[in-house]
Amino acid sequence: MTETASRTTALRGPVLTFTGDPFRDGLEHTMVHEPDAIIAMADGRITQFGPAERILPALPPGTTVQEVGRDALISAGFIDTHVHFPQTPMIASYGEQLLDWLNRYTFPAELKFADPAYARAVARLFLRESLRNGITTSCVYCTVHPHSVDALFEEADRLDLRLAAGKVLMDRNAPDGLRDTPQSGYDESAALIAKWHGRGRLLYAVTPRFAGTSSREQLATAGALWRKHAGCLMQTHIAETRDEVVWIRTLFPDHASYLDVYDRHGLCGPRAVFGHGIWLGEDELQRLHAADAAIAHCPTSNLFLGSGLFDLGRAHRSDRPVRVGLGTDIGAGTSFSILATLNEAYKVGQLNRQPLSAGHAFYLATRGSARALHLEDRIGSIAPGMEADLVVLDMRSTPLIDFRMDHARHFADQLFVQMMLGDDRAVRETWVAGRPVHKRDIPSLV
Length: 446
Ligand code: GUN
Ligand code: ZN
Fold this sequence. Notes:
By secondary structure, this protein is α/β, with parallel strands linked by helices. It is built from 18 helices and 17 strands. Residues 82, 84, 237, 275, 329 line the site of zinc ion.
């Protein structure tokens, strides 16, 4: 057996992936559904992909081929472009809208991260739950405590995940114990960048929580830090609720818009990921397009907090399309399941009179989200050279889905059934860098 042969693993079965943006070019030009495909992987990357009859004879001798079966579907791993790992313990907290919810539930929950051991325990649980749901990359808010970032990155590095995260910057309108200062926030973030950015597949995200909790001075230092480390991402929240937009206007009366606050502090550009953006004006969408920045659409959160209905069609308007990814926004979001998140995205679309097709939805959860993070050349699709992060879905994961699938003849219908009825039970396996890290039927794999 040659050395190459012993390094190569392959999966065989039905595959769904995207070669481009269906919102721009249509599903017929961008969606690839291959009913019997081979994906070969070595050294963490995909080495070969195509119809089994073409790839099988070309596999290195000795390659092990795992057949997933006809009732499975292999996709690129799901990508969560907006999530707060420290809010895992307070997911599903009753009865407030954004600003009261932050004060009543979120800040007390984040205060507990003063304890590094607690931070490590929650980070482990968070990543396991993400993998159980087929999420192989996330863009994550930690807390104000630098060790909360260490806790998450240590575990993500151990799993060889491609993951972005950052220490929350917050120097006002937050309780004692959760505030930093412009200087300490800058220094701590800079030290975390030096320690983690580019280690393994990890990426740092400069993370001012939002304009409500950062002074002008802190926004300016965050902008300076990001400019100095332009390969990092930048994540924050914008225009999530109407009350928040009104409040930000009172805090920054000299700015033309909410986005203008970030923009004039150097916080708008490629690799900026703005959470929510429900209440953005046309001028702000124009600016996001021109700056090549992205919006993270978080439907379960927006419905849970009663924030509003994100208008995906408006964001994608063809004369000034904005990059849009999908986010769970745990713990305002109500599910780690990307299928459940797509279910709610569909319903938000319905209320906007824009039904989201299953093909477009799966694009949003994979390549579209990779594009929002400017990572579409590495993750989010299945092709030679891409990082081997995959999810294997069970297309008959519950008795109802099994029954319903007997009545779904076309692939588009079968896919739609998954996004409307599926959840974590549909995730049979999750592969990271060419290795299985979650198998539904074999608990505690990693
Ligand atoms: N805006 C500022 N902070 C947060 C947060 O933690 N969650 C949500 N959903 N919105 C925010
Ligand atoms: Zn959020």
